[in-house]
Design a protein that fits this description.
The structure is a single chain. By secondary structure, the chain is of the alpha+beta class. Helix content is 29%, strand content 29%. It has 3 domains: 164 residues, Immunoglobulin-like; 154 residues, Cellobiose dehydrogenase, cytochrome domain (Immunoglobulin-like, Sandwich), CATH 2.60.40; 162 residues, Four Helix Bundle (Hemerythrin (Met), subunit A), CATH 1.20.120. It contains 7 helices and 24 strands. The strands form 4 sheets. A 7-stranded antiparallel sheet has the order 7-6-5-4-10-11-12, with no helix packed on it. The chain is elongated and about 115 Å long. The relative contact order is 0.07.
Length: 562
């Protein structure tokens, strides 16, 4: 009986055998602790390689070492995806403008290769083989398949490689093939930044399920009270950064510090508008003549980058990429997306940055792209003056006060007093000569205030350099009509003159046209100034009172005539 109980069941033996064979057959996960034992010879010493896990979700392992003063050696190890693998070196963290080493070994080793590609855009026909900015050392490249992993080896001639790297995998079963060696769109990718000296890495941007940034649907608002916990290493100390909200309406946060006597470090944080963000440094507060740092990462991570632009004018073709008065430190620019926000970092070589700053963002879904990298007109912008010493900013400076003064003067002059003068002239003629003197005095006062308002408008336009051509044109027409009315008053014929009725028709109709255009331009100006509904409601109430009075007086006038 006991022997029967001790005898193992055939089913149990089968299960144990299956489990044992499964665990024995399961390969140990490849990592930086695994020995690098390749069956092929490598043209450089591999004993002192730095090793980083650069893409945990896809088990990408990067080994590298500075072999000599101007030579860097790399080995990228990845699972065999039955497609190409790639490592791109980017100046700003984006795909466009980067140069990539791409390797592949077809299933069963039927074919394989390794090439450099230049990413001139995000479509396959813009990815050019055998082009790029990498100085690849001759006969240093090869790729091999071993234990279901690809090992891609290459050496670069450079004093220090770009620190912003992009890793990608292609679609299963699709390989570059002669004669074009065209590269199909990646199946998945991730962007990282490496501190080569410290062998540190942080993820900045990814696609698909492996994304460590865009895969998150939660949005955390940045503030000066929150810690700056970026998942990428920066090239400067961030512990003593000054911080201030520079555009509350759009959630823009600026952090900065004077790193050394002539080095200033900046980090601009803003919600990702699915377009570019920009910070401009202006000598006078206006856009024209300013130099701007512009960065972008599309919401799906397909494109990204940073550039300096010089604004020679207001139209897109007058905004010139890769030019400007800012001395940007080499390899200091970086943009990353984290928790639905963009973080744009850069360093400037200057003893004191310009204090007049302009912040802007572009239209949704529109990005600079190769080859021109033209910048679309901004969707919105704001200007501030920053006191670097105290860490305070102000948007209520001269331009802001002048904008409000311009609006109030024109509302009072053209939009209220001129209308009041017209009402008195039409409905109070029995109070002769009081009506005439009151009409002339009020209209003259309204005209003077209107002139000051028009002049302030021209000064404001020179400061802000915004495109308000229609508003300006209407203002000039209103001003000309006002001048014609004053001239008509000086040339007013006597009552008994035969031409008096023609003068009356001219004077009255010109006045009506002026009032209609003035009202329209005032509401349009309030919209351009983004003053909100308060100004619209306030002026609307004044107009309602004036027109109610006019209708009442007109009714009385008609009944008196009957």
């Amino acid at each position: 009986m006991l022997e029967r109980q001790m005898k193992p069941s055939p089913r149990l033996l089968l299960i144990l055998t299956f489990l044992g064979s499964f665990f024995l057959a399961s390969p140990e996960a490849y990592s930086c602790t695994s020995n690098l034992s390749l069956n092929v010879s490598i043209p450089f010493d591999t004993t002192n390689l730095h090793c980083l896990s650069v893409w945990d979700a896809q088990s990408f392992i990067l080994r590298y070492v500075q072999t000599s003063a101007s030579t860097w050696s790399f080995i990228l190890s990845t699972p065999d995806t039955n497609s190409y693998i790639a490592i791109g070196f980017s100046a700003g963290g984006g795909m466009v403008g980067s140069s990539a080493m791409v390797g592949w070994v077809a299933s069963r080793g039927a074919s394989g290769g390794i090439k450099q590609y230049y990413l001139g855009g995000v479509t396959p026909n813009q990815v050019v083989p055998d082009k790029g900015n990498l100085q690849v050392i001759d006969n240093s490249t090869f790729i091999t398949l071993q234990s279901s992993r690809l090992f891609m080896v290459f050496q670069l001639e450079t004093t220090e490689p770009l620190s912003s790297l992009i890793f990608a995998t292609g679609s299963t079963g699709l390989f570059p093939a002669p004669p074009s060696f065209a590269l199909t769109k990646h199946l998945d990718k991730v962007s990282t930044r490496i501190d080569y000296s410290k062998a540190n890495i942080g993820s900045s941007q990814g696609d698909g399920n492996s994304s460590q940034v865009n895969g998150s649907t939660s949005q955390s608002a940045d503030s000066c009270g929150s810690n700056l916990n970026l998942s990428v290493p920066l090239l400067f100390d961030t512990t003593n950064l000054n911080c201030l909200p520079v555009w509350n309406a759009q959630g823009y946060i600026l952090r900065y510090s004077q790193t050394s006597q002539n080095i200033w470090s900046f980090i601009l944080s803003a919600p990702n508008p699915n377009s570019y963000i920009a910070i401009g440094f202006s000598p006078n507060g206006g856009m024209v003549g300013s130099s701007a740092i512009v960065g972008w990462i599309s919401s799906n991570g397909a494109s990204g980058g940073m550039k300096q632009y010089y604004l020679t004018g207001l139209t897109p073709n007058q905004v010139v990429p890769d030019r400007g008065n800012l001395k940007v430190l080499t390899n200091s620019t970086f943009i990353t997306s984290q928790s639905s926000r963009l973080y744009m970092a850069f360093q400037l070589e200057t003893t004191q940055p310009l204090s007049k700053l302009i912040y802007a963002f572009g239209p949704n879904g529109v990005f600079p792209s190769a080859p021109s990298f033209a910048l679309a007109q901004h969707q919105d912008k704001v200007s501030i003056t920053l006191n670097y010493a105290t860490g305070s900013s102000a948007t209520t400076g001269k331009s802001y006060n002048l904008k409000r003064s311009h609006g109030l003067l024109n509302i009072l002059g053209w939009g209220i007093l001129i209308i009041m003068g017209a009402i008195v002239a039409r409905y109070f003629k029995e109070w002769d000569p009081f009506w005439f003197y009151f009409h002339a005095s009020v209209q003259s006062l309204g005209f003077v205030l209107g002139i000051v308002g028009v002049i302030s408008g021209f000064v404001l336009n020179n400061q802000l350099h915004t495109d308000v051509s229609l508003h300006k044109a209407l203002g000039i027409i209103i001003f000309v009509l006002g001048c014609l009315q004053i001239m008509a008053l000086l040339g007013r014929p006597k009552k008994e003159s035969k031409v008096r009725k023609y003068w009356n028709a001219y004077h009255h109709n010109m006045g009506r046209i002026l009032i209609i255009l003035a009202i329209a331009n005032i509401f349009y100006g309030i919209k351009l100034g983004k003053e909100g509904s308060g100004w619209n409601i306030g002026y609307g109430i004044v107009l309602a009172v004036l027109f109610t009075m006019a209708i009442t007086f007109e009714t009385q006038l008609c009944s008196r005539d009957d």
